[in-house]
UniProtKB/TrEMBL annotation:
Entry-linked CDD domains: BVR-B_like_SDR_a
Native organism taxonomy: Bacteria, Bacillati, Actinomycetota, Actinomycetes, Kitasatosporales
InterPro entries given in the database record: NAD(P)-bd_dom, NAD(P)-bd_dom_sf, Polyketide_Oxido-like
A Pfam family matched in the record: NAD_binding_10
Protein name per its UniProtKB record: NAD(P)H-binding protein
Domain called NAD(P)-binding: residue spans: 8-202
Length: 216
């Protein structure tokens, strides 16, 4: 059983991570800007108020946990720019203050920086709308930051290009820097199976200090 501090528990991905973690018997503290927004009671769940953009708040909420999970987003492009890398910096800065006792960190990333079969990156595709490019590069900037960090045990988990609510199959493939494509050439994962992969990484750490990706 792990103790998990979770940011983004009200979100599409974070709510699936929350459910998966609770169903597997882990203890979760969901840290929200507005705790009233989480309409869930469960014996393994504690809800707390906190700010992922404030290192002191992160340290306070993370202290004593085994792992911090960040599934935060920002809605539109500018919202992601204002949230994704700044939260990466605040999470790292907050965890640093806990020294050797700091929990590890698993952050939900983006698919934009993954390599495509033509040797480019997902965000190089022609015709992508500006808001999506901003979101992709916000995640790329956060990953760039994590890659400078060697004193906090971080992991960045990029979804497949398409992630949406669906079935929990429990089956997924894992990659590192390359976009995962299925037999039909599509890159996809359900939010439920993404959550399975993330909680698997909590239970059996394999990608500390690295980015990895999951897809079918
Ligand atoms: N293919 C891809 O690469 C891909 C696809 C989908 C999503 N993603 C990424 O995955 C992440 C999660 O996506 P999602 O669809 O689950 O997002 P979402 O449904 O919009 O949820 C975002 C969550 O972040 C929280 N949040 C935002 N700003 C915060 C702050 N300053 N402090 C604390 N919490 C904050 C929100 O809390 P409130 O309830 O307080 O607003 C909410 O729980 C995003 O970064 C998104 O870009 C990547």
């Amino acid at each position: 059983m792990a103790t998990i501090t979770l940011y983004g528990a009200t979100g599409t991905i974070g709510s699936r991570v929350l459910r998966e973690a609770l169903e597997r018997g882990h203890r979760v503290t969901a840290v929200l800007r507005d705790p009233a927004k989480l309409d869930l009671t469960h014996p393994g769940l504690t809800v707390a108020a906190g700010d992922v953009l404030d290192p002191a708040s992160v340290a306070e909420q993370a202290k004593g946990s085994d792992v911090v999970v960040s599934a935060v987003g920002g809605g539109d492009g500018p919202g992601h720019v204002a949230t994704v890398r700044p939260s990466a910096e605040a999470l790292v800065d907050g965890l640093r203050t806990l020294g050797a006792d700091a929990p590890r960190l698993i952050a939900v990333g983006g698919a934009g920086s993954l390599r495509t079969p033509d040797g480019k990156q997902v965000w190089d595709a022609e015709g992508l709308p500006e808001f999506l490019l901003q979101i992709m590069h916000a995640h790329g900037d956060a990953l760039d930051h994590y890659r400078t960090v060697d004193d906090v045990r971080w992991t960045n988990l990029s979804p497949a290009a398409l992630i949406e609510p669906g079935e929990r199959t429990g089956a997924y493939r894992v990659g590192l820097e390359d976009l995962l494509l299925d037999a039909d050439g599509n890159s996809r994962i359900s939010t439920e199976d993404y959550a399975v992969a993330l909680v698997d990484e909590i239970e059996r750490p394999q990608y500390v200090g690295r980015r990895f990706t999951v897809g079918y």
